[in-house]
Specification:
The structure holds two protein chains of two kinds. By secondary structure, chain A is of the alpha+beta class. Chain A has four helices and five strands; from the N terminus they run βααββααββ. Chain B starts with a strand and ends in an 11-residue tail after the last helix. Classes of the chains: A alpha+beta, B alpha/beta.
Chain lengths: 144, 100
């Protein structure tokens, strides 16, 4: 399926990139006339995914985060967040509510839970030493 | 960060967007106020918070733990409707520290 529109950004895994990434995605999809609640859902999900890259994938180092947003028919938004960081051994465990490997940083272990509750689907691919890709999909309500 | 301390109650007024990046500063300022004043109650006022991801939950849980160490209580007040969903999801409601 071909996308109607697409944008890509590459930025460093500094914590300031968290607000940059969610604002950039929100700006990009503005022309689709999303509701305030839809914008907030997407911002939250993107914020969680990018924070995972900063806190976990590139822990104590700086690497690149690759963000790609595609718009498909019927206001389907697909957001891909990719890193070349440490990768995850057990994706299922990482996605469990309240599971965290960074309690000292006051991470609540709710990142994936929020991504799942605020989007229609969350797909995760990960390889130890190679990196992780998170694909979020959300269909915006039809506008009249 | 705006705050006030009277009658042994410390209220911190959070504002703007709470994420992993911004949470550190809020955490450091709040913890230093708690350690200086040893309040019996900490109010975390969310009325001016426009956005919060799960970092906001971590922030609340961390302050709750610190306040408990001093034998104090924590309350989260004036939670905007859109953040209420995140708070409920986190299981914070079982601690009975959110208003309503």
């Amino acid at each position: 399926m071909n996308s109607q529109n697409e944008m890509s950004l590459t930025f460093e895994s500094r914590s300031s990139g968290e607000s940059f990434a969610r604002s950039a995605v929100a700006s990009f999809i503005t022309y689709l006339d999303p509701t305030v609640s839809e914008i907030n859902d997407i911002k939250t999900a993107v914020s969680e995914a990018v924070t995972n890259c900063v806190v976990h994938a590139y822990r104590d180092t700086i690497g690149k985060i690759y963000l790609n947003v595609k718009i498909f028919d019927q206001n389907m938004v697909e957001i891909k967040i990719r890193d070349k960081g440490c990768g995850m051994e057990n994706i299922k465990q990482a996605m469990e509510p309240l599971y965290t490997t960074a309690p000292e940083d006051e991470r609540s272990g709710l990142g994936f839970t929020l991504m799942q509750s605020f989007t229609d689907s969350v797909k995760v691919r990960s390889k130890i030493g190679k990196g992780t890709t998170v694909i979020l999909k959300k269909r915006l309500s039809p506008r009249v | 960060m705006k705050y006030d301390f009277k009658n042994n109650v410390l209220t911190v007024y959070l504002s703007g967007e709470i994420d992993h990046h911004g949470a550190r500063k809020i955490r450091e300022e709040t913890d230093s106020l708690i350690q200086q004043n040893k309040p019996v109650l900490l109010n975390m006022d969310f009325s001016d918070v426009g956005f919060s991801d799960s970092s906001g939950i971590g922030l609340i849980m961390g302050r709750y733990r610190l306040m408990s160490l001093y034998g104090g209580k924590t309350k989260v007040i004036n939670i905007p409707e859109r953040l209420r969903y995140v708070m409920n999801l986190s299981g914070l409601s079982s601690l009975h520290i959110t208003d309503k």
